[in-house]
């Protein structure tokens, strides 16, 4: 039997519409896209693996490692398809997840409806016992009451349990003891907040442990099923998952903490873009990932994506911040909107074209797929505008029905607005592109950046179709469409380090700072983070230490990076100086002149990652040799507002330095790059396409 080899790696990304597979065989990439199978998601992975190993001429047994990311946890939360879950919490705190923070995310809406909590009130159980903010026990845990609660949960047919006690981040003893008592009578998974999210702020922490428990049975079952079927196929290699923070963790860890997988697919895309930025030496990059269901925008500085400790899932009100489900875990920071190839187009009560957030997905899919979908999607609009070749979509695997797209667009949108099919399709795409441009501007402004200062990296099956137009709207002069852009997130999985971030909240004022106590805490976090990394890495591990600090009385903290070394007697002065330096970088100046204004540390973070090999560096080339398209196609031109003859050229026929003058469409198996009239395209020495605005200084 052929043995597996570590230089053959496979990435698998399950999206809302397509499942992407990328196979790296000793530096040669093989990839494919297959429609996601909702009833058995692992089947799409197996089907995709069969295609790429056939193309590569290898057997499943030769695959050395499989790295997987999925939207299943996200979809389960959004669609409320998780387990029947019970919450056990401290007496008096039953309604924390329903009261939220009491902030109004839409101040002037008199009929504002808060999102429903993940666990209804009748499924929340309270118990006496109290831990103080300093971690001291104020009231013993009522163990007899927990025995009764266990009986009620057993009789209630619950599939999972979440435990969230007040101040458990400071002392987890009560949560751990409660789990022991419940586990004696229950054979279902039990999640405790001190392990899932050991951070301050009870609403966020309780909601996170509830979300973890809610999706845990489903994800554990799926991951076990996937491993079994991979072994049956002959692939007996280890399987690792990419988590929301961009690192790799074992399947066992993912099964226990599935909430860490909520943004795993988009995280792979950000890593892919960061790798491209590093290879070309680009310090200011905005990544643009548009797939079948959503579009994601992420800022990348100094070759690394921006990160955060919290994010929201399933925003219910015009994507307003605060209207979703907060998840308190390390995550790559990005803005995500419901604008993918499968997003549905519709007309609102004011007669305006709208798109998303509802998506046709893969079942039934856009109208042009011929799989039962009747409503118009963005892919239908792209097809009517001529951006897509109906006979060469997904390498010819899916034949697109242009007539069905036109009928759907006219029936649901065009006839209501007295527009023909072409004008309606253009309106749909303009709305989508403008929504994405606005999202990118907002994300940049919220981070104190000017979006036009960045180079764009576009990937995902739909992004190259819209990237040039988006650059026109944002004033961006250059955009890279990497090789393998259509399966960018799956390729990003192969670039991800083994990594894990351990956090602990411990409110400490600098006036009462004890270096020895903090060093012990950091050593525990370091051991925990490195332990997770060691499950998949044997090489050198580096740790990043971060203190999240604020002025006393402020409502939020800023990250302050620290050296990976023990804190000594001069720690207070050093921490104060570093905080003020970072505060000035964030807000323009530190606060001065207020006597007695305290500085405090809220949370400590240790992020451990294995060291990745250095990447080969490339210089961007503007190209000299003009390449002439061999065929043409009528494509709607947004500048002239009418169809225009675009050159059509196969990407594989282009060589390094070849320059294609817009307007043109560069086609490949997983996607197509639309080069608008304003841009030219130049092939780089790694095969990437560089879009350069005509007349710019590039």
Could you write a compact summary of the structure shown?
The chain has 698 residues and is an alpha/beta fold. Helix content is 31%, strand content 27%. This is Methylhydantoinase.
Distance between the termini: 53 Å
Major sheet: 10 strands, mixed
User: How many beta strands in the DSSP annotation?
Assistant: 36
Q: Roughly what is the average pLDDT, rounded to an integer?
A: 89
Query: What's the architecture of the domain at 80-215, going by CATH?
Result: 3-Layer(aba) Sandwich
Instruction: Give the CATH topology of the domain at 80-215.
Output: Dna Topoisomerase Vi A Subunit, Chain: A, domain 2
Structure description:
With 698 residues, this protein is of the alpha/beta class. Among the domains are: 8-77 and 220-259, Nucleotidyltransferase, domain 5 (2-Layer Sandwich); 80-215, 3-Layer(aba) Sandwich (Dna Topoisomerase Vi A Subunit, Chain: A, domain 2); 499-610, Dna Ligase, domain 1, CATH 3.30.1490. It has 16 helices and 36 strands. Strands 13, 14, 15, 20, 23, 24, 29, 32, 35 and 36 form a 10-stranded mixed β-sheet that branches. The chain is globular. The termini are far apart.
């Amino acid at each position: 039997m052929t043995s597996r080899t570590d230089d053959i790696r496979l990435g698998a990304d399950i999206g809302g519409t397509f499942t992407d597979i990328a196979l790296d065989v000793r530096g040669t990439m093989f990839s494919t896209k297959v429609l996601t199978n909702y009833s058995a998601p692992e089947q799409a992975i197996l089907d995709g693996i069969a295609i790429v190993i056939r193309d590569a001429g290898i057997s499943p047994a030769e695959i050395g490692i499989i790295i997987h990311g999925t939207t299943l946890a996200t979809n389960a939360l959004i669609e409320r398809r998780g387990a029947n879950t019970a919450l056990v919490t401290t007496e008096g705190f039953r309604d924390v997840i329903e009261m939220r923070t009491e902030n109004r995310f839409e101040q002037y809406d008199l009929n504002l409806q808060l999102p429903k909590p993940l666990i209804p009130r009748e499924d929340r159980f309270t118990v006496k016992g109290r831990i103080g903010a300093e971690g001291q026990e104020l009231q013993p845990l009522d163990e007899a009451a927990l025995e009764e609660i266990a009986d009620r949960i057993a009789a209630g047919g619950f599939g999972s349990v979440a435990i969230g006690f007040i101040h458990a981040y400071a002392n987890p003893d009560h949560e751990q003891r409660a789990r022991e008592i419940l586990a004696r009578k229950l054979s279902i998974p039990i999640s405790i907040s001190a392990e899932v999210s050991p951070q301050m702020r009870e609403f966020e922490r309780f909601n996170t442990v509830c979300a973890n428990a809610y999706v845990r049975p489903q994800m554990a079952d799926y991951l076990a099923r996937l491993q079994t079927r991979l072994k049956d196929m002959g692939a007996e290699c280890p399987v690792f998952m990419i988590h929301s923070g961009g690192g790799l963790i074992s399947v066992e860890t993912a099964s226990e903490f599935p909430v860490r997988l909520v943004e795993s697919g988009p995280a792979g895309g950000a890593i892919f873009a960061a790798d491209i930025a590093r290879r070309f030496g680009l310090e200011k990059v905005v990544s643009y990932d548009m797939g079948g269901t959503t579009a994601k925008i992420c800022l990348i500085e100094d070759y690394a994506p921006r990160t955060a400790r919290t994010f929201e899932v399933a925003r219910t009100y015009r994507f307003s911040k605060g209207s979703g489900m907060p998840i308190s875990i390390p995550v790559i920071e990005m803005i995500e909107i419901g604008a993918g190839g499968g997003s549905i187009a519709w007309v609102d009560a004011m007669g305006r074209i709208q798109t998303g957030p509802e998506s046709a997905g893969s079942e039934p899919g856009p109208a042009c797929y011929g799989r039962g979908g009747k409503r118009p999607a963005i892919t239908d609009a792209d097809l009517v505008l001529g951006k897509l070749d109906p006979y060469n979509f997904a390498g010819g695997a899916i034949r697109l029905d242009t007539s069905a797209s036109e009928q759907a667009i006219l029936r649901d949108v065009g006839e209501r607005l007295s527009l023909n099919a072409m004008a309606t399709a253009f309106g749909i795409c303009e709305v989508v592109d403008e929504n994405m441009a606005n999202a990118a501007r907002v994300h940049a402004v919220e981070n104190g950046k000017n979006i036009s200062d960045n180079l764009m990296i576009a990937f995902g099956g739909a992004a190259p179709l819209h990237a040039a137009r988006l650059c026109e709207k944002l004033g961006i002069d250059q955009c890279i469409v990497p090789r393998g852009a259509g399966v960018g997130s799956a390729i990003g999985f192969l670039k991800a380090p083994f990594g894990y971030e351990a956090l602990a909240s411990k409110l400490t004022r600098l006036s009462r700072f004890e270096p020895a106590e903090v060093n012990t805490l950091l050593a525990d976090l370091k051991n925990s983070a490195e332990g997770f990394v060691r499950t998949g890495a044997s090489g050198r591990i580096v740790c990043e230490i971060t203190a999240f600090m604020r002025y006393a009385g402020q409502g939020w903290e800023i990250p302050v990076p620290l050296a990976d070394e023990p804190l000594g007697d001069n720690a207070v002065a050093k921490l104060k100086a570093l905080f003020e330096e970072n505060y000035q970088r964030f807000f323009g100046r530190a606060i001065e002149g207020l006597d007695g204004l305290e500085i405090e540390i809220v949370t400590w973070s240790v992020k451990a990652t294995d060291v990745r090999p250095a990447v080969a560096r490339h210089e961007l080339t503007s190209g000299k040799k003009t390449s002439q398209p061999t065929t043409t196609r009528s494509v709607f031109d947004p500048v002239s507002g009418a169809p225009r003859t675009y050159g059509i050229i196969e990407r594989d026929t282009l060589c390094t330095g070849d320059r294609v003058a817009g307007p043109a469409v560069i086609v490949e198996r997983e996607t197509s790059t639309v080069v608008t009239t304003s841009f030219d395209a130049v092939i780089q020495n790694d095969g990437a396409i560089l879009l350069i605005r005509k007349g710019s200084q590039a």
